[in-house]
Amino acid sequence: MKYLICFGTRPEVIKMAPIILEMERRRLQPVLCTTGQHREMLDQMLKVFNLKPHYDLALMKAGQSLNSLSAEIFKGIDSIFGQEEPDVVLVQGDTTTANIIAQAAFHRKIAVGHIEAGLRTYQRYSPFPEEINRQLISRIATWHFTPTEKATGNLLSEGIKKEAIVLTGNTVIDSLKMIESELDAETIANNLGLKLTDFEKMILVTGHRRENFGKGIVELCTSLLELSKNKELLIVFPVHLNPGTKMIVEERLKEQSNIRLLPPVNYPEMVWLISNCDLIISDSGGIQEEAPTFNKPVLVTRDYTEREEAVEAGFSILTGSNSQNILSHAFRILKDPPNFQDLKNPFGDGNAAKKIVNFLEKQKISKNLS
Question: What global pTM score does this model have?
Answer without folding.
Answer: 0.90
